[in-house]
Task: inverse folding
């Protein structure tokens, strides 16, 4: 069935001969990247560069005209842009803006990236050092961030309620996070996979969780076969698979570690086993120290995510309170940026 | 120790670390005048204690990097932004600045520009209720311990060379009183309307020139407004259509700062200007050579920070 769906998808995939004048009307489903002189986005497989203003954001409905040249849209012209009125998008927009109003770069970009997976405001230099150190995945909304958040929640809750209740609350937390982060395809995917990996890890049934992961991945590909080449999807899948397969083994080897970083280390190290080669292929850079760097910085991610989330929501209601809470991420993001810039 | 306690202690540690970072980066009350390396354009930041003044925003978002580096993380307020004139290499970066920082006041000449980016800036400034002061020679502004004396444009010059936007019948309000960014247009080169100001911090004076042209410099000197300064921001990125010998004679600066991009297409700074500065033994500091140029002063002496 999956094979049929794939054939159908690629058969019906539109392709245009060079020089065709096209008019694209669509909603922006991946965040435009802002460069010094232009903003870049991808629609229908076409690379489009537009002037910096008017600014286009994730979720906007746009009409763009231009000439097709291979995989680029030349002489691209923005005919119209209308903001998405959906309140979840507006909520996400407002939160991202609040981060940038409250914290300096690159700290604000790191918080926005980890909490809601927003990449548009990451400055070139910082992005380069993220890629070089093999930590760029923290700003891609993926199953890995979801698992980290869930892992953190469960270790807090386990001290308060019993293990089973803790698991349920953590899963609720994951889905609240998903709604918070825009509840768009990549986030939903990440949340599904994160939930599966996490339940598997906690319940300890390796075989069934492996099956559950494959089924949910297949179901997602049935909905949209194009996702197979989507980095967020691949990372979510690989990280989840890696966690299912290796986490418990890694944990056995790191018993000597202090408990505060043990969980983070075993999770990040296990995920790295399958993620590192993927990052190497997509970003073209591979740092042999990457697992080590990740181990040094990944423990900060759940804290940044959760403090960022609480601070962001509080900030929309009472800005000064939100700001005070967000300041607490500053030592963590400072640590993160200092470490990755060392390498 | 229970898990609950562990997280509580972690939270306390985090709060302590945050407070320490805030204290460690608490700025002293000396003046720091930073010519940000924004490529071909101008962006100059003055900091003293918790007070910041930004003069122009450069052509891109590199100004944000500069602000974020020198302003402590908990201070997101810029007291004054001065826009010398509405050309892209001076204001485009300001769009990001007003979005990221809370800007209290704008000082500008009032000259409008029809470019799309300027309209974006206008709507941002208007939408956020930022106060706009259209300065004329004689205007004095005090922000914390920093004083700004506006030398140019003169009221006479702007009255004779400009045409107010949408003049309605019976509307006789002068441009100084409106609260909009860009209230008149002119046939002249926008450079001629550049806001020129002397920034003073106790005994330290800096002449900030925007992109002012020789004719207007002469008018400033004739009006007797030029005085001895320590620091000059060389007008127009070191173009020969900028700094004049007369201006140097009238102000006798010790340090000249040139804000221009590496290998820019205009050939700024021009050899004639560099020659003029060398003849007078004025120390030249260029953003295209050293990056951010940081000059610090305690109000008495001043020095260049490495």
Result:
């Amino acid at each position: 069935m999956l094979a049929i769906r794939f054939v159908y998808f690629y058969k019906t995939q539109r392709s245009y001969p060079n020089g065709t004048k096209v008019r694209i009307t669509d909603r922006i489903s991946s965040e435009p990247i802002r460069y010094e002189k232009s903003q870049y986005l991808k629609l229908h497989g076409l690379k489009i560069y537009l002037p910096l203003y008017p600014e286009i954001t994730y979720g906007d409905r746009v009409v763009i005209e231009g000439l097709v040249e291979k995989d680029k849209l030349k002489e691209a012209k923005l005919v119209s842009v209308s903001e998405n009125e959906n309140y979840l998008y507006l909520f996400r927009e407002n939160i991202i803006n609040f981060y940038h109003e409250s914290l300096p770069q690159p700290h604000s970009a790191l918080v926005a990236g980890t909490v809601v997976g927003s990449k548009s405001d990451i400055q070139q230099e910082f992005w380069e050092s993220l890629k070089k150190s093999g930590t760029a995945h923290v700003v891609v909304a993926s199953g890995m961030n979801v698992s980290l958040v869930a892992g953190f929640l469960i270790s807090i809750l386990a001290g308060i309620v019993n293990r089973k209740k803790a698991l349920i609350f953590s899963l609720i937390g994951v889905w609240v996070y998903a709604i918070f982060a825009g509840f768009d395809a990549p986030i939903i995917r990440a949340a599904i996979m994160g939930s599966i990996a996490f339940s598997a890890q906690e319940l300890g049934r390796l075989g069934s969780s492996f099956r559950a992961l494959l089924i949910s991945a297949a179901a997602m590909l049935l909905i949209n076969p194009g996702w197979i080449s989507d980095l967020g999807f691949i990372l979510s899948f690989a990280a989840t698979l890696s966690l299912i397969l290796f986490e418990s083994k890694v944990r056995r080897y790191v018993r000597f570690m202090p408990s505060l970083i043990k969980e983070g280390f075993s999770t990040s190290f296990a995920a790295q086993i399958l993620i590192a080669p993927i990052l190497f292929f997509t970003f073209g850079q591979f740092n042999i120290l990457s697992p080590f760097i990740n181990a040094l910085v990944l423990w900060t991610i759940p804290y940044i995510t959760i403090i960022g989330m609480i601070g962001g929501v509080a900030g929309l209601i009472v800005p000064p309170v939100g700001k005070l809470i967000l300041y607490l991420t500053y030592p963590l993001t400072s640590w993160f940026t200092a470490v990755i810039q060392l390498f | 120790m229970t898990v609950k306690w562990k997280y509580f202690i972690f939270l306390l540690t985090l709060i302590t670390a945050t407070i320490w970072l805030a204290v460690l980066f608490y700025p002293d009350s000396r003046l720091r005048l930073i010519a940000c390396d924004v490529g071909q354009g101008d962006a100059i930041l003055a900091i003293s204690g918790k007070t910041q003044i930004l003069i122009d925003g450069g052509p891109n978002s590199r100004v944000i990097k500069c602000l974020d580096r020198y302003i402590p993380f908990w201070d997101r307020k810029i007291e004054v932004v001065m826009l010398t004139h509405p050309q892209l290499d001076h204001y485009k970066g300001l769009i990001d600045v007003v979005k990221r920082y809370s800007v209290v006041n704008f000082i500008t000449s009032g000259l409008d520009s029809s470019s799309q980016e300027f309209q974006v800036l206008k709507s941002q400034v208007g939408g956020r209720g930022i106060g706009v002061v259209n300065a004329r020679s004689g205007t004095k502004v005090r922000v914390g311990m920093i004083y700004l004396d506006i030398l140019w444009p003169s009221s006479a010059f702007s009255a004779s060379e400009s045409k107010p936007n949408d003049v309605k019948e019976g509307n006789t309000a002068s441009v100084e009183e409106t609260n909009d960014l860009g209230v008149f247009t002119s046939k002249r080169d926008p450079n001629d309307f550049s806001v020129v100001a002397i920034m003073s911090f106790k005994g330290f004076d800096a002449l900030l020139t925007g992109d002012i042209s020789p004719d207007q410099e002469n008018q400033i000197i004739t009006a007797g407004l030029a005085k001895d300064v320590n620091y000059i921001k060389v007008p127009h990125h070191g173009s020969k259509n900028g700094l004049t010998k007369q201006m140097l004679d009238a102000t006798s600066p010790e340090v000249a700062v040139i804000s221009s991009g590496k290998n820019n297409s205009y050939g700024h700074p021009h050899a004639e200007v560099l020659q003029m500065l060398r003849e007078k033994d004025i120390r030249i500091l260029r953003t295209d050579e050293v990056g951010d140029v940081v000059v610090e002063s305690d109000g008495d002496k001043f020095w260049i920070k490495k």
